[in-house]
Amino acid sequence: MKLRFRVFRPRRWVLGLLAAIPVVLATATIPAQAAPAAPITPMWSTQLDFDNNGMAWSESSFAALHAKGLNTAEIDMSWSVVEPTQGNFSFAELDQEIANAAAAGMQLVPIFWYSGWGGSPAPWVTSHEVNPSGTQGSAPAWWDPNAKPAYFTYVTNTVRHLAGEAGYGGSILDYGFLDAQWDENGGASGWAQADIDEFHNTYLPQTYGTIATFNSKNGTSYSSFAQVPAATPGQSLASVYQQFRVWSVQTTYGALTASVRAVTNTPLYYYFGGHVGDADNYANIPDLFFGLAKQYSVAIILDSAQSTGLALIFASLARAYGVKLAQEWTAPSDSSQLAAQAVQWISNYGLGLPNGGGEDFFIHDGTQKDVVGFPIYTRWLGNIQGLSGAYSQQPGAVYLDYSQAYGNASGGDLLAPENNIGNLWNGYMAGFAVVTSQEVNAGVVKLSQYRAVLPINGVDANLNAYRSAGGTVLTSNAQLAQYAPAYATTANLGVIQVVPDVANSKASAQVTLANITSGTTYNNTITVSPAGLGLNSGSYHVVGANGAVIPQENVSGGVCASVNLSAASLAEWNVVAGGIPAGTPTPSSCAPPAGCATLSANQSIGSNGSLPSCDGRFALNMQGDGNLVLYEGGAALWATNTVNSGATEAIMQGDGNFVLYTSSGGAVWSSNTPNNPGASVTLQNDGNMVMHNSAGGVIWQTGTGGH
Predict the structure, then answer these.
(1) Cα–Cα dist 224/557, whole Å
(2) How far is 471 from 699, CA to CA, in rounded Å?
């Protein structure tokens, strides 16, 4: 059977402006859950095609996977094989595979596809989706009055048939095209006549009640809902149709899940495919799936979880909604990056604790990713399974406005905010949360629980309300360190990533180290901050796997330890209570990491930039209003008092003078310390900003020490 690989590229289309955007989570009508669901235990899994070249997967095939530490295998279902003609079901091959899996100590997790994978849809499903230009696609129409209920029947009957079997481990529910919902090969769909009929006959009356209400809200003068256009991207009222597409995803997934829950309480999963930038096309809003997952006790499987930005977003959502999160690796097209991305995917798992739901390798098919990536996964599987506790959390958050996906053309840009979040974290590894606009709108998260919030793609009404209530809305990435101090600092950015999981007692932490490059060895030091980890006060030291001794020493802000990690490889540390044992070797160098504390000759801070102390508790901010201010958290300790001066840069000049300049080159403030070539200014971990000459003597300071 020919495989259809799920590879997605972000696409965007611009929607018309809508003054008021309904909260779709509150409008969909979804049946109530019928039975309490069984707890979801982590799946340690790989994906398989429906069968092995026309033959049922053998017991020995499953035994080989089980010997590698896996407990489940996901199997891509073929609607054509199971229901070759409508209403006639053939379970013989599937039953054999379920029995073979059970005999090998494994369970199978069927993946149900409406379309897009070989064998789905069934050949007797004949309708087609339509894109905005009127071109037919290969997927059946979303609201096809025959195909939709037939698919529900196929899924529900198959699950009912399997539910009592020892080799059955739950099901993955999908609808639309693969796990891309409304998208088909990079383009939006949703304009089939069946979809437009649902828009006119159900969505509009349910959402607006009367055509008069619709006209009032949208500035139109239609006499009936049938006259409202199924607007395409760029047209007037396109936002209304986009909200219908979002509503369709939620309503359909909710109804499908309810129908399955009515016959089984076994584990269920949703795949989340694509990226943030796909939200317009797919209508794949993460909060929509997490809301349903919470309601029906479903776990989420994140596709492309090697993306640290996506993993951070979904890990925060999982904690907020109380939903389990499994992470899937989708291999890159560049084979030279296979090992590096597999390592990154594996190390990202700790970001999701305590809501870890397992790992999923896509796909076990004998290709190069199997040769390179699968052994990395299975060799490190025991380490992943041994993780416990929770990813470090601090009272600072990044905020992601998702309203554009609901049709708000003026909402935050969704092109690639996960990349921005990932880049922020890679340059500054800290336990900040990621909060979405939909979490706040639905009341799942309150911004007031955070001391400060950094907008990643614009400021919306939620952030303005938070600021009006006294909350701190940050204006630069560097400011986040005041509220979410880094838990680890490295000598080189982009080579190694550090993912900690802190014990519930806050007396220790497990740390996963990953060299995420394909050819660079990291032979240097990492400084681990107990304060950044959120550990209890006291002394700590680092030990390697199985208690191995690691060269280390105490430095300002934490424990500096040696690391020698080859490209595309992993290591494990434990941060434990107690001072560094006597006789422990010290690293050859534990200089302060680049990017914190010190400005040397000709280094500067630009407008809205910040210089953090190495422990992250203090920051010198070059504010947009022209004032240079030293902060501890949100409290100002010192300032140049140059508000509205036009200053845009604070520079440590080569002559030893620290000067504020306007964009036109005018000096508005200085430390008055010229004739000191080689001087540097340092923000110490006690809160004092001190300038030293080349001989180490103090020649200027803010006098704010002792904190």
Answers:
(1) 67
(2) 37
Token pair, residue 600, equals: 């040397």
| pLDDT, tens only, 629-650 | 999 877 899 999 999 999 988 8
Pairing of strands 486-490, 522-528: antiparallel
Q: At what angle do helices 92-103 and 59-67 cross, to 10 degrees?
A: 40
Cis peptide before 363 (omega within 30 of 0): yes
How big is the chain by its Cα radius of gyration, in Å? 28
Q: Tokens in use for 352?
A: 């999701």
* Distances in whole angstroms, Cα of residue 254 to Cα of each of 241, 244, 288: 20, 15, 10
Q: What are phi and psi of 667, to 5 degrees?
A: -85, 130
Question: Which one-letter amino acid corresponds to residue 67?
Answer: A
pLDDT, tens digit (0-9, with 9 covering 90-100), for 488-500: 988 777 889 999 9
Question: So what's the pLDDT on residue 334?
Answer: 86
What's the token pair of residue 528? 């681990």
Could you tell me which of 124, 174, 120 has the C-alpha nearest to residue 2? Answer: 120
In 10 A of CB 702, how many CB atoms?
A: 20
Decide if 465 contacts 482 (C-beta within 8 A). Answer: no
Round to whole Å and give the CA distance between 666 and 654. Answer: 17
| Residue 648, pLDDT score | 82
Q: Which pair of structure tokens corresponds to residue 667? A: 């000096």
Among 500, 521, 536, 452, which Cα is nearest to 351's?
500
Dist. CA 323–CA 342, nearest whole Å: 24
Q: Nearest 10 degrees: CA dihedral of 456, 460, 463, 465?
A: 180
Phi, psi torsion values for 405, nearest 5 degrees: -70, -15
- Token pair in block for residue 622: 């070059």
Q: Locate 37 and state its tokens.
A: 């669901």
- Contacts of residue 670, defined as CB under 8 A and 6 or more positions apart, other chains included, come to 657, 658, 659, 660
Please count the residues of the chain.
Answer: 707
CA 670 to CA 348: how far, in whole Å?
45
d(C-alpha 522, C-alpha 11), whole Å: 36
Measured distance CA(70)–CA(43) in Å, rounded: 8
- Give pLDDT, residue 123: 95
Judged against a pLDDT cut of 60, whether residue 9 lies above it is answered with: no
Q: What is the mean pLDDT of residues 454-460?
A: 94
Q: For 291, phi and psi rounded to 5 degrees?
A: -60, -45
For the record, the structure tokens of 615 come out as: 């422990």
What is the residue type of 628?
Answer: L
Cβ 409 vs Cβ 280: under 8 Å: no
Number of H helices, E strands in the chain: 17, 36
Torsions phi, psi of 192, nearest 5?
Answer: -65, 155
> Which residues does 580 contact at the CB level (< 8 Å), separation at least 6?
541, 552, 553, 554, 559
8 Å CB contact between 72 and 44? yes
CA distance to 163, 557, 689, per residue, from 185 (Å):
34, 49, 55
Nearest to 615 by CA among 509, 531, 540: 531
CA distance 201 to 70: 48
Residues with Cβ within 8 Å of 458's Cβ and at least 6 positions away in sequence, in order, are: 401, 411, 412, 413
